[in-house]
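We store chain and fold; example below:
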Amino acid sequence: MLAGRAAWAGGLDCSRTGSRVEQRLCADGALRQLDQQIEDVYQRQLTEVGEAYRPRLQAVQQAWLGSLSDEADLRGALRGRLERLRHAVVTVNSVSLLRLDGDAHPPYVLSPLPGASVYNHWVDRVWQELPDDLAGTGPRPVPACGRDAPHCDRVMVRRRYLIDYVSPEVLSLDAVLSEQVRQADPVASSEQHLHWWLSRPGQIRSVDLFPGEAYRRVITAQVRHYLHDEHEVENADGSALRDAQNPASWALGARALTVTGQGYDYGMGPAHVEIPIPWKLFADTVDAHFLDRIQRYPDPPAAGP
């Protein structure tokens, strides 16, 4: 039954004995009302997203249905799903985005921009490469860490794709992977920032931002300044400074290039670190064409759309 229905309320026969989840829905008028709202919004979204993305939306809905259980907070689950469906299509800085699964997958770009098709093709690959046990929302258990660590059992893995910046010219994403190996272990997090042109096809390379090498001195100076101010000690192998030069550690924004800590240690453990470097500090080392493009639109809200 769950595999073939988008939500229960539209066709749930409460005169029959169903699963315990169905029984709870039938017994609570407020839950039935929430479920009907989900059904209404879901059917509208199926029409609005178009044929290209309809199978993705259906897959996410089925994954969500499969995640419900009698022990779950049904009211919270229904409200959460309703909000995600209502905000599946958002517009940020004149760019229309489709978020089928909240931040669990990268957003599709709906706006007909020159670089949208190349970027959306990459999003398709992300959907195909994620294992089934990571589909849907929230933490998902996975059976093992792999052949390199046969006795390691991960208890939680979560992927999030957050928007650093988006405009009709540029899209910058923050891909965050969080995992917990054993129940008693802390949650470890790593990041990778990905940058795409939307004004033309292709990913943004460091040479698109900085034609020469002088920018490295600016980044090094700012990271060292941060380490000094925060009373942190550079890693013995110099990984903090080295990683700061990697574009995968950069969050692009209208006001600054932010160097982010993605797993390296500033002397305080693997905590998340952000070091904003205003574009003006790069002076003439930054490409004027790129700077003009990224400063045309403001940064999105801190929490992302």
